[in-house]
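In response to reviewer comment 3 from the previous cycle, which asked for concrete evidence that the modeling workflow produces usable outputs, we include below a single protein chain processed end to end. The sequence was submitted unchanged, and the resulting structure tokens are shown without manual editing.
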Amino acid sequence: MDVVIITAIIASLFLALGVAEPLAARLRLPYSVLLAGLGIGIGLVAGFLLRTELTDAFNPVAEAILNLPIRSNVFLYLFLPTLLFQVTLGMNVRRMIDDWVPILSLAVVAVIFSTFVIGHALYWISDFSLVACLLVGAIVSTTDPSAVVGIFRSIAAPRRLTRIIEGESLLNDAAAIALFGVLMGFVMRGVPNPDLVEATGRFPYLILGGALTGWLFGRLAVWIMAGFSRHLLAQLSVSVALPYLSYIVAANLLGASGVIAVVVAGLTVNLTAPASLAPAAWTALKEVWELLAHWAGALIFVLAALLIPRLLEGITLWDVGLTLVVVAAALLARAVILYGLLPLLSVSGLSPEMGRPYRAAILWGGLRGAVTLALALAVTESLRVPPDVRRMVGVLATGYTLFTLVVQGGTLRWVISWLGLDKLSPLDAALSNQVIAVALQTVREDVQRATEDYELSRDIVRSEAKQFAERLDGAVRRAEDSREILDRDRVTLGLIAVAGAERNLVLERIREHGVSERLTDRLLSDADHLIEATRQDGRLGYRRASRRAVGFTRQFRTAVALYNRFGIAGPLAHRTADRFEILIFQRLILRELDAFIDMRIRRIHGRRVAELLHDLLGRRQEMVEQALDGLKLQYPGYADELERRFIRRTALRLERREYDLLHEEGLIGDELYTDLLQRIDVRLAEESRRPGLDIAVARTDLARQVPLFSELDEDSLRLLGRSLRTRYHAPGDLIVSRRTTADTVHFISSGAVELRRAGQTYRLGRGEFFGQLALLHKRALPSEVEAIAPTTLLTLDDKRFMRLLEKSPAIREAVRKSAEERGIPLGALSSAVRPRRSG
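The workflow returned the following structure tokens.
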């Protein structure tokens, strides 16, 4: 084949892709539908030119198009890893982990159920074997992720709902391709009715083997890219190699699922790369992959659609009937999942509630595309598959794909409009009038100042001002007419705006290196959760998400458990330092939001709503300050070190901004500018190393802050610090139960607990202690102690506590006083403790 012709065809394809996207927007068609139509049209025209006797001038081009080396391996090894990898990079993985139950349920259950329904429907009315019919079911169960996600983004669905559907559509392909591999093996071996246990027995290996391969390759790639910190192009090259190597090693060397390997590799990079790569490198990596995936997604649709005329060659009415059976069975299976499984998940609290219009949009928007055609092509290319099965799979998969693209895709916009999902809600419509009125008032003030500065003609200014005033008056009237917005709704909308402003501030600080790279994902996740919780539950959701942002994460609780049970301090020190930095950062961000409320919210929603938002924000600030004060009590001085580090990083950031400005103004040359930036990068790298936190050393400092230990001298205090053990508890943790052995005394270094005994409740705070009465009575008293705030305890065993009682009269008096307050006789105190005589 002539290289010139091939080059011209490829260039023409890219030109067509460039024209197709704006054309699809103008025609209000899904991009994938237009691409499929383009591919089908090219294939039909090429076939016509090759067969017609009108002219032979275009025969070389037509032959080149029809003889393009389009094989299933081209789709599965070249295009599919690109598409899957890019989708995983764009996901909010940490938030998606919160919804792993509905995502996996929809992905795995939907694929298996759809395969079962479609396969048995074909088996009942056709003469093909059950395994061949199930193979068709697995092939057509692969939805097109880009089409499904595009639907939800076009109708502005809730973010959590979009995230669930996005994860489901991605894992749907992975599960369907893995199931396709199992069933394809039975078809090639000639097993007509495989045993269900045998059919699913290899499935765990496919999934786990692919997942382990992807995780290992993802971690290795991030480690290599982190080592190439000064070579951006090298980092990008490593990222490009990652999905293909993961796919090939898993699929060809290990016999596992290459699709799962690519997905897990992408998720691993998504989770670990932001903490290991510079923000600029991470941004560049995602931009490069977005471009690669755009090209791959478009080309795979066009090239796959080229095959449709060939695959449908010789189609009969019986084939059309079987295709309609596949259509009906696929829609039925998807409807059962959407209207059966999803409501059950919503009732159980595992998934957000999905309204009927959304479910109808998903049902009709389940477009099939290039992945389905690629799998069908793999079957038609295999000589080990019987000829009649090859033809049946090719015709049915292609016919069903064509139906979803032409019929469903062509009417999708109309369906969305009919369901009312493309219209603003009454609340949003009323808010838009308020926003327009406020924005026009601000614009009028700015335009007035600009005309005064430029000394424009008064007649022109007066004429334009009159037209603008008419527009402003109309906007104000519409805003005054939309008084149906309740204060409760205004507060919700205001909180959503405040949460969005907080997210923007977080992004700005991340871009300016104002926070450690490893914490960026946690901060963005908290900001996203704040927005979503407010959208769902208003003020209550905002408060709940605010408490969650200040509370302990799963990782912190795990580190606490390791320290409390096994004395392993490293993970806890690491997580505590993270908590320090996050709280300091939150405090700085929250202080900037007050100005946003006064400048924006007050003008849109009024003074009363602004005051309520200030109050809610003030409560958040109090929570952050309280949590930060608790940490400062535990580790005095460490917060000061972090604040000094923050000031130094801010100074370097501002210094870099000045150099950028001087370079843009031409006051410094390229060579000097590059040298100055390199110096800034070196100093930023030095400041990126956070000061270490030694929890073990802090025990003596913690003991010094307990008032009961104030009379001890430094030597005794140092010895006591070695004997004390530090335990951390989150609110709600049960510290002492009725079955706890009476062998430990707990001193409260920071926080608060609630002690419940004999129907009475006592609240103890910093400097108080508990457990001493049960120890002196030498039996467990029927009581419970629960943490009601983030609490740090210093614990002593019974022998060391008795020695401390002998040494400290203040502690003996405190023990006696606490016993009297709780009505517990403590005659054992004098006999158990004999103060040492001086001399």
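The radius of gyration is 34 Å. We consider this sufficient to address the reviewer's concern, and the full set will be provided in the supplementary archive.
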